[in-house]
Amino acid sequence: MSVFIIRRLLQSVVVVAVMSLIVFIGVNIVGNPVDMLINPDADQAEIARVIRDLGLDRPVHEQYMFFVKNALQGDLGKSFVFGESALKLIIQRIPATFELAMVALLMAVIIGVPLGVIAGMRPTAISSRIIMTGSILGFSLPTFWVGLMMIMIFAVTLGWLPSTGRGDTVSVLGIEVSFLTVDGLRHMLMPALNLALLKISLVIRLARAGTREAMHQDYVKFARAKGLSETRVIMVHVLKNIMIPVVTVLGLEFGSLIAFSVVTESVFAWPGMGKLLIDAIHNLDRPIIVAYLMIIVLVFVVINLLVDILYSVLDPRVRLKDAGQ
Amino acid sequence: MSEISEIAIAEPLKVETPLHRFMSDFADNKIALVAFFVLLGIIFIAIFAPVISPTDPYDLAKVSIFDSKLAPGTKSMDEVTFWLGTDTSGRDLLSSIFYGLRISLGVGVLSGVIALCIGSAIGLMAAYYGGYVDTLIMRIVDIQLSFPAILVALILISVLGKGVDKIIIALVLVQWAYYARTVRGTALVERNKEYIEAASCLALSNNRIVFRHLLPNCLPPLIVVATVQTAHAISLEATLSFLGVGLPVTEPSLGLLIANGFNVMLSGLYWVSFFPGIALLITIVSINLVGDQLRDVLNPRLQK
Amino acid sequence: MTNQSLTLDVRDLKTHFFTKAGVAKAVDGVSFSVGKGEVLGLVGESGSGKSVTGFSIIGLVDPPGRVVSGEVLFKGQDLLKLDAEGLRQLRGNRIAMIFQDPMMTLNPVLRVDTQMIETIKAHDSSISKRDALARARDALGQVGIPAPDERLRSYPHQFSGGMRQRVAIAIALLNKPDLIIADEPTTALDVTIQGQILYEAQKLCRETGTSMIWITHDLAVVAGLADHICVMYGGKAVEQGTIDDVLDHPVHPYTRGLLGSVPGHNTRGQRLYQIPGMAPSLMNLPQGCTFQDRCPRADDACLIEPGITEPVPGRAVRCCHPHLDRNEEVGA
């Protein structure tokens, strides 16, 4: 097990290194680094100073080492707009985005798995057909437009839910969270559901396919032959088997949720890192963009690592294979 | 069995071409057939938008600010009915949607075609040469596909800047990897079949083998991926334009129309973003439904 | 007939599958009985309806299949009249089942102890975990699994095929059932393992008085194990009797064909007998006797469905032209 984790850790470090190189090339070679990293309002003396500070007059490989050195010290430049460390600004926004993504993920499982299992147990029933049509629609609906329609119906017309912002937050271990206050939850409901929509469709499809397959397996029939109740057969024997692909795929999708939160956060004015990124793109605030990219790469790598470990915990067959190596 | 032989006896002269069979297989699914005709209609609208639109929404001489914010079905002062209402500048929404479809579809299809050409060429290269070339290409594809399309597009836009050409470049760069992976996968299977071996034995040139023998056999999965990817590209472009980092205001695609409506939605003018959204939805759903059916019809494993 | 002495009495069981392409009569009028501590061999080719018969008894026929008519009397009680909960309480408790492929019957993501304890708990919710674990350990020991404590904490994939089948048998034994339905439990195993499992099964029946229905296509397996035999063909029971009598003096042409096509020591060098044709599709059974297309004795009389006759006491046969000459050579 530990050998497995160490090997995966090393792989992750390599991916981060490669991605830092790509971001570096994107900023320094494809774009003009002076435009990218220096405030367009700066004067000549300021530009010359920053060029020297950033080492832009040095050869490319030295520049890269410099970039890496600074990045390792947590220095990815200062935001032009806020005048603060870009990394710090991003990190401040992370809890809001992660909270939203977590709740969306939870919604995807809570709504998607039961619907998928129902659709898989009796694939020809009318209820199953309705569920599947709904999931095709969920795949095709443009997220941002659905968000708008939600605001129109629930905030403008019915006035049930607030349309923007994060609401009241409480501090837990120094991190501001919304899900512990009623107001925060009311603010979170629409954006989280909006973000979850695509993933609900995905989970329904996965759970349905898994259930259909499991229902025909001998072990399900054997479980029935043992006299287990239908509840136990479905909740333990079927569910435990379909949760492996569901958890794996959803874990990998967590990164995509964070990426997609850019859209949801813009629609619902949710103060997360996605909103910050869009604002930064509008304001040409390059250090923020670079910091966002490096953070998101790190998030993806960590997620992939965690999913692999979780997968081996869930599926005993994977564990054995690894121990054998 | 007996049914088939009876038909064969009854109509011995009718020879079924592959195209015939493809069409009759496709028509088996009525929903897909409806989706196909809806899609044809949408393409027709997109091509002939200037001809069939009730008004030209971008002719400043004809757009009157006095017609702004009219609800669907209201008549203008010139007795023109605005079936879907007007926006804040007094433009007829129906005409705006027709023009918007033209831009959305145009950008989506154009980027799809370019990505298909580039992606297939790279995929074929990987499959044909194998070894290091293959490993390198597929590693890049894997890394890119592990990041969500929207993120890759946002990164590219933030590096490249805004503009129609930039958006198309971004959409191409987002999509090429899917085509490359599809073509490589199929080509690897096809390459090991006897007919390629036979072609090699005839000492045909590499180019001829790749483009005349390998590529045509990779087409069915490519067509399926192309439909799905085009729907994706249209949706992605709409999202980027909605976020204000996509097409410039001078090229009002459906995404931009929806974004414009967003600003006035809170004051109750629902139709300004509702109808463009419906147009977008119908487009994407019909492409996806056609793609789904194509996948079933073209899947060689399901054929006898 | 004294119902109470019989563990199981199946009367005119019919299970049909209602598919879009038509009705498949997988089981169409099967009757047999199993006494206490007896082993009944249910023999037939694939598609003869023998497995469906087994599933019909415990009410686990998958849709679109349905038991259409008949009686399944288990210790005098008709199982077909029981509701779902009543059947569930019997399954795994009084009637246990063992499946064909040991690689597929155990849930791959649950530990063996979980899968054993849940079987006990399903029928006795008051039992403590420790007692349940002790019973599971005993059951594993009973089927000859070494180091049961360690094995209980393992996952199925850590066992070999033969070991997994032993675990499945142990699970079947957990609640000391009155009847075990074994659906080709040795078919997927090596011959040597097969022998061991058969030996264990026989020993268990004799020691515990458990009755058993052993479903198989392999006459050799049944020959050494069963007390009675029931031969199925095309969804119908065509011949029944004590094992020795049926094997020595087969009356139905199909049974004779089956016996004749078993390679043996005496038939070396001779051409092996082969039943002509293929097993009929259950969708499209011939009118009358289902075996007529392949039967050397078939004539116009076979177009009318033959009833069950009793040529010798204790024997039942469904045939218009049974081989009644007891000195006739098998396979001719």
Structure description:
The complex is a heterotrimer of chains A (325), B (304) and C (332). Chain A is mainly α and 325 residues long. Chain A has 13 helices and 2 strands; from the N terminus they run H-H-H-H-H-H-H-E-E-H-H-H-H-H-H. Chain A has helices at residues 2-30, 33-37, 44-54, 60-72, 86-121, 126-140, 143-157, 182-215, 218-225, 230-268, 273-283, 286-314, 316-324; strands spanning 170-172, 175-177. Chain A has a two-stranded antiparallel ribbon. In chain A, helix 6 (126-140) crosses helix 8 and helix 8 (182-215) crosses helix 10 (230-268). Chain A starts with a helix and ends with a helix. Chain B has 304 residues and is an all-alpha fold. Chain B has one domain (24-58, 69-302): MetI-like fold, CATH 1.10.3720.10. In chain C, 30% of the residues lie in helices and 23% in strands. In chain C, strands 6-7-8-3-9-10-12-11 form an 8-stranded mixed beta sheet, sandwiched between helices. A 4-stranded antiparallel beta sheet of chain C has the order 2-1-4-5. In chain C, helix 4 (112-121) crosses helix 5 and helix 5 crosses helix 7. The longest helix of chain C is centred in the middle third of the chain and has 18 residues, at 191-208. Chain C is globular, with a radius of gyration of 21 Å.
What composes the largest sheet of chain B?
Answer: 2 strands, antiparallel
How many β strands of chain B by DSSP?
2
Structural class, from secondary structure content of chain B? mainly alpha
Task: Report strand % of chain B.
Answer: under 5%
Task: Give the biggest sheet of chain C.
Answer: 8 strands, mixed
CATH topology of chain B: MetI-like fold
Number of strands of chain C: 12
Strand percentage of chain C lies at 15-25%
Mean pLDDT of chain B: 77
Name the chain pair whose interface involves the most residues. A-B, 40 and 37 residues
Number of helices of chain B: 12
Instruction: Please mark out the parts of chain B with pLDDT under 50 across 5 or more consecutive residues, or reply none.
Output: 1-13
Strand order of the largest sheet of chain B: 1-2
Q: Helix segment count of chain C?
A: 11
- The radius of gyration of chain B is 24 Å
Gross geometry of chain B: elongated
Gap between N and C termini of chain C, in Å?
A: 36 Å
